Amino acid sequence: MPADLFSDKFYGGRGLAAWHQRGFVDDLEHTANEAFDLIGRYNVMKLPLQTVATRQDGTHIATPAYGIIRPPVDDQGEAYFGTVSGDYRLVTPQEIVDLCDERVRRPVETMLALKDGKQFVITFKLPKFDVRGDEIENFLMLWNMMDGGTASGANTSSVRVVCANTFAASLGASEQKARFVHDSWILQRMARWMEDVVHVAEAKLPELAEAYDAMAAYGFTRANPNAGKEVKHILQATYPQLPAYQPDALMTEEQNKEREKRRLSEIRIVDERRVQALELFKGAGTGIDSRAAYGTAWGLYQSVVELEDWKGGSKGNQLAQSVLFGERAETKSRAFDATMAVVTGRAGI
Questions:
Q1: Distance CA 35, CA 28 (A)
Q2: Which residue of 14, 160, 188, 289 sits 20 to 30 Å from the alpha carbon of 153, by its own alpha carbon?
Q3: What is the Cα–Cα distance from 26 to 114, expressed in whole angstroms?
Q4: Strands 5-12, 108-114: parallel, antiparallel or unpaired by DSSP?
Q5: 35 & 158 share domain
Q6: Is residue 210 part of a domain?
Q7: Residue 321's pLDDT band (boundaries 50, 70, 90)?
Q8: What is the pLDDT of residues 197-247, one digit of tens each?
Q9: Which pTM does this prediction carry?
Q10: How many Cα atoms are found within 13 Å in the side-chain-facing hemisphere of 297?
Q11: What is the Cα–Cα distance from 203 to 49, expressed in whole angstroms?
Q12: How many domains would you assign to the chain?
């Protein structure tokens, strides 16, 4: 099914349709409950399982397991999503909708059901700001998994989610992310995280906009005699040089050689990322020729962001993932801190 969309259950706000041209789109502001009405409500249930075989008296034999069932909806018959224990806390689409209206209290940007309805996603547009003509958008996404084996989660990113592919892109571009295991406290943890994110996004907006504007005003040009050193400092801080492997006397020669080989590969990966970020900054990056980004600290920081969010390198590559410290958000955080240190004169260069 195109976009993995379930039964055309998609809502898009601000009059912005998705590429698949399905679902309901308008330019009005809707609460989560209103958007749920527009796409068509559906439910998912946790039901006790029993054996097909019966006892001598004709009664079925109960089991300690439960099945996650989606009742028939629209033209789709019922669906079985998975088997869980009694401790599993199913969160229904209606509970997610109510939570968002109670804690986020913002108009819905998009709402969609994926994978036959077992994945339910709601996004909200967070405050945006302008960096010398470059508009920065940010979205909050909450997704509920109802397959019995996958945690639910939430994140913030600059990607507007309209399908399974953009959902994956949003995860890769996450600025911050949370994972929620389906235990008895899942709704409380979701509510607290969502409320905190909205509060921080609104409270820190002026501070973040000021920092980005300072980056855009700081040039790495001929007028700056330390430009080369400063760029190198930021990239080195973002992708720190790994030390050479030191042999372990308690290991065999073969084991030490294997570890040394791995470390050389790790060093190569880090060096490549540093070079790739510099190439994006020098002209290969998306929008790098804009007034805010061309030759500026903002452009260098955005080159790292683009490399981590869109250019891959660690996806599907466990070695690269370990070298890059597992979370791309941490790499971007190092880039932000190092760039601001240069811009504010705290780098000591």
A1: 10
A2: 14
A3: 21
A4: antiparallel
A5: yes
A6: no
A7: very low
A8: 888 778 877 888 889 899 999 999 888 999 999 999 999 999 999 899 999
A9: 0.72
A10: 27
A11: 48
A12: 2
